[in-house]
Amino acid sequence: MDRPLPAPPLRLAWLMWGLGALFYLMAFFQRVAPAVITAELMRDFGISATALGNLSAFYFYTYVAMQIPTGILADRWGPRRLLSLGALLAGIGTALFALAPGIATAGAGRLIIGGSVAVAYVGVLKLSNNWFAPRWFAMASGMALFCGIIGAVSAGTPLRLLVDRFGWRSVLMLSALVTFAIAAAIWLLVRDYPHQKGYRDPAPAAVADGGNPGIAAGIVQVLRYANTWLLFIIPGGIVGCVLTFSGLWGIPYLTTHYGLSPARAAALNSALLVAWAGAGPLFGWFSDRLGRRKPLYIAGCGVSLAGWVVTLFCTRLPIPALTAVLLVTGFASGCMILSFAFAKESVPAHLAGTVSGVINMGIMAGPMLLQPVVGWILDHHWQGQVADGVRLYSLQAYRAGFVLMIAWLALSFVLIFFTRETRCRQSA
Fold first, then answer.
1. d(Cα 187, Cα 143) in Å, to the nearest integer?
2. Confidence category of residue 208, pLDDT binned at 50, 70, 90
3. Which whole number is the average pLDDT over 167-178?
4. 54 or 402, which is more confident
5. Which of 212, 232, 326, 346 is nearest to 279 (CA)?
6. Angle of helix 38-45 versus helix 49-65 axis, rounded to 10
7. Which of 155, 161, 184 is nearest to 91 (CA)?
8. Closest C-alpha to 409, from 222, 179, 233
9. Residue 427, strand partner residues
10. Domains of the chain, with CATH numbers?
11. For residue 330, which of 154, 196, 200, 395 sits 20 to 30 Å off, Cα-Cα?
12. Is the torsion defined by CA of 409, 370, 144, 70 positive or negative?
């Protein structure tokens, strides 16, 4: 009689997960880097706020388009092939963007980056599902978000200081080389399942070994569940606010209307993201311990909504008060990490990758739509002011654009009440 395989040691599981999370860190770095180099991009390429919003959003266009295919591929290919190929293409796109002579080439680079890093988070979720016991999933999801936001923080003050010293093109080319190294490490070290390393799979064998539906059938199946539709829309409002502000328009808003230097504005943006990063694992851990998803989601979204209203529509807050409000808002926004565990538990286990792709698509639809639309509104309200070749926008222009963020977040808050609580148990 064969002896049962031992469970994988946690350090090995975290190594598998960690290499995927490192790629997600770089994905987040690329996601928010344009916020720090808005002036350089507008000056070098001679573009307006609308064009800059579209350039930044090119990342999200392909990112969102790839989410459903990514979920299916994660179920069928496995995370190792998906993540290593994604990191390789991301390095190519980053190099193209860094070397771009004009806006068209830069846009092509952003399109490649967005489509390739689209596999990162779903791949990490798949590794979490394959290597960890179910009780670790929500916390591992939150830790992945934490790693991603560390990437976003590195695209704040550190990126600003490096750009001031070496120029934005050199710094982004270095990030391309780092991404190539991550691709090689994933291919050489990561395995899809513990049994490929001689350990027992935490997931049921039927799920680990296959039995997944085709692309169309998988999508149809997950869309039969009401929670899938609701959790497609809800986190888009939360993440849309965070990444439209911290990922593009927050730094010019803070420098223009609070008189902050670009470095200080980047630091304040980074503080928001650090709070968001720290909240993810805590929301996941506390939700698992409580055995509920919905109450924490409602509380976090409500506080986030109140925080953005204060941040964007209260006149001239003192800097300490503004910092405190942004920290609380960022922390509360971490509730969105519950979307993945919530959605995964709402459908049968063999659809975990597919539903994760669908939910991530909804999440990224927020910044994809809001970033260029806010840019268009800013240009529509532009009064002709220019400084060093860069357009300046009035407080009224920013508020007109930011009201769209508030509206989506308010809708998200209402829709959470219509979700079905899973009590942290997997659907049959």
1. 22
2. very low
3. 94
4. 402
5. 326
6. 110
7. 184
8. 233
9. 348
10. 10-416 (1.20.1250.20)
11. 395
12. positive
